[in-house]
Amino acid sequence: MRSSVLRSVKTLAKPAGARGYSSESVPDRKVAVLGAAGGIGQPLALLMKLNPLVSRLALYDIANTPGVAADVGHINTRSEVAGYMGNDQLGQALEDSDVVIIPAGVPRKPGMTRDDLFNINAGIVKDLCSAIAKYCPNAIVNMISNPVNSTVPIAAEVFKKAGTYNEKKLFGVTTLDVVRAKTFYAGKANVNVAEVNVPVVGGHAGITILPLFSQATPKANLADEDIKALTKRTQDGGTEVVEAKAGKGSATLSMAYAGAIFADACLKGLNGVPDVVECSFVQSTVTELPFFASKRAWKN
Ligand SMILES: NC(=O)c1ccc[n+]([C@@H]2O[C@H](COP(=O)([O-])OP(=O)(O)OC[C@H]3O[C@@H](n4cnc5c(N)ncnc54)[C@H](O)[C@@H]3O)[C@@H](O)[C@H]2O)c1
Ligand SMILES: O=C(O)C[C@H](O)C(=O)O
What EC number(s) would the UniProt record show (predicted)? Predict the structure, then answer.
């Protein structure tokens, strides 16, 4: 895979001057989290509350959001927090959103594959994306709900049907694969984890997760068997957590961290920050597959 395959969220930038921007201030940005009372949703709500690029934080779920919003809302950072519960309040939660993050849906239990979640999560994602098309058609969508390899194409179809599809604004969040690859590589290569970069391409399930350790930096002379073991551990990272949690769900804290990194990159891109690049599962012409996780330099 060539390193020139880069997708940058910088090209999503709106012109400076939009929505109250001045050189002294950062623009107003509304972020909505759908599934905000869940295992990922709660720590993700916390991390988005800590992000100074967010001015309004809408926390939506089918239950329990008043408590989460009251709790997170007491934190003395920039954003105003509001909780929304149930379908009647979904429109309000979404209205004016710049970025919508979707961790709504059921997680795996030991013995399940991500595809086993399809029947339930496909319906949830379809309904939420229909509402996004109606209430905030221009928002950037960060899809976390599994199976990402399917929920992203479902979202694309919903948006196409509604006439709102913008391939540059639909992202399957695969940042956790990158986070894992960086952690495992740093441990094996004995390098400073804060300096490590590893592109991860492909998809977000088992062998479709392709960490490109050959392109990892800082360079390390790892043996082939080490690279094989690192690749397998990255591909099985989700299952490692599912098994360790023994029926109590899948990755939540590391996923919230990864989701917050990706949402932050989207906000920076919207604000016109140059050279913001993350891997994610996007509509693609890199292979014959219609969607493929990659980094790509966008040319408008
Ligand atoms: N992309 C990734 O790398 C990655 C990583 C970890 C987990 N996940 C996926 O994220 C999803 C959520 O995981 P979790 O551990 O937070 O699960 P969870 O069960 O703890 O939380 C899910 C939340 O979604 C809510 N929900 C259900 N239907 C909804 C709807 N129609 N609208 C709004 N909210 C709704 C639930 O009420 C719950 O609060 C799962 O599908 C999981 O597989 C993806
Ligand atoms: O593995 C899962 O089911 C959750 C998530 O996709 C992960 O990679 O941790």
Answer: 1.1.1.37
* Mutation test residue for ligand 1: of 40, 120, 245, 282, the one with most atoms within 8 Å of CB: 40
Q: What is the pLDDT of residues 270-300, one digit of tens each?
A: 999 999 999 999 999 999 999 999 985 444 3
Cα gap 281→290, rounded to integer Å = 10
Task: Answer yes or no: are the C-beta atoms of 60 and 127 closer than 8 Å.
Answer: no
Indicate the pTM of the whole model: 0.93
Q: Where are the domains of the chain?
A: 30-173
Please tell me the CATH superfamily of domain 30-173, with its number: NAD(P)-binding Rossmann-like Domain (3.40.50.720)
Give the Å distance between the CA of 147 and the centre of ligand 1. 11
Give just the sign of the alpha carbon dihedral 142, 165, 35, 70.
positive
Using CA atoms, how far apart are residues 300 and 287, in angstroms rounded to an integer? Answer: 20
Q: Indicate which residue of 30, 49, 182, 204 is catalytic.
A: 204
74 is catalytic: no
